Amino acid sequence: MPAVPDHATLTRALRDHPRFADLGDDELRPMAVKGLAHDHFRVGTRGWVLRVPKQSQFALSAADNLCYQAACFERVSTSGHAPELAAVLPPDQRLPMGALAVREIVGRPPRLPDDLPALATAMARVHGLPVPEADARAPLADHTDAVAGALAEIEAQAAYLEVADLDPAARAEIADELAWARDFAARGSGRHQPVRLVLTDTHPGNFLIDADGRAVIVDLEKALYGSPGTDLAHATLYSSTTWDPDTHADLSVGQLGAYYRHYLEIVGPELAARIRPWLVAMRRITFLRAITWCVMWSVEHRRAARADAGASGRDWSAENTDPALIAHVADRVGEYLRPATLRRMRAEWRKAPGLDAELGD
């Protein structure tokens, strides 16, 4: 994968945009690395952040990846819960993956469970945005059948199960949930859900809480048109709330129920009535998406030192990312693929009283 350019190269590229034509030589400052797909640089004291992709997590071309991310920021920021897009620096010889400049959000990581209402409010505001006609939704993905759309991603990731080094008990847990999801999808259940602009990658570490208590999603590259239940689930699954040390929490079913009810109150009775029957099912689908991603990552990470590294268009090697971050991801992935952890996560819908009882379904 192409290396992130040095500061001098980034500075010259950013100066090509009229907003930053007077950028000083020493204004760019690297920010802490927390994600696998980007490096970030603070643009002096101007209130902007330069977001430089290292790879596409959708395995898109550099140009398509940048176009997709720009559309995410442009559309979600109208909710007031995502940074404004300032500039798009297209891919070229200096910037192989291009870059985006977005508004810097000053805030702190969410504290769970206290900030769950703020996260629910942010998602409700995004889900309340007008949805364009189908022919105007590109370049964002359009999952008019939310279950089928998610299952396509799950199946692509689940293909790695054949070569993953998994405990047989863990493999059985995943296989059981996959069988349920395939049957659920075959019944066409996803076509009956309301379609909204959704964030998709809503783990709490992707948000900041500003001075007014507003939750703002700052790592935004996977938005699409699909089921609001996906966002609600991904923000609060055990694999999300224990992913980032800054937002680590183990939520009870009661706390989850309160969070979902808060969201349903904000979106109003019409949307609440339409989405409520799908919330637990979409939680299971989102669980599968997260867990099969872990399976895929574990396999591709093992391949990273071999000749086939990067063959998928992704590179999660320590050479392309801070080794400490890679070690953290490996630790989390290992934890989530343990049989006991998989059973603990599935208990939300397999044991009574579960989340369905909290929601009154």
TrEMBL record:
Domain (Aminoglycoside phosphotransferase): residue spans on this chain: 35-256
Chain segments annotated as transmembrane: none
Superkingdom to which the source organism belongs: Bacteria
Q: Which InterPro entries match?
A: Aminoglycoside_PTrfase, Kinase-like_dom_sf
Among Gene3D superfamilies, the record links this protein to: 3.90.1200.10
Q: Which Pfam families match?
A: APH (PF01636)
SUPFAM superfamilies, alphabetically? Protein kinase-like (PK-like) (SSF56112)
Q: What is this protein called?
A: Aminoglycoside phosphotransferase domain-containing protein
Which organism is this protein's natural source? Rhodovibrio sodomensis
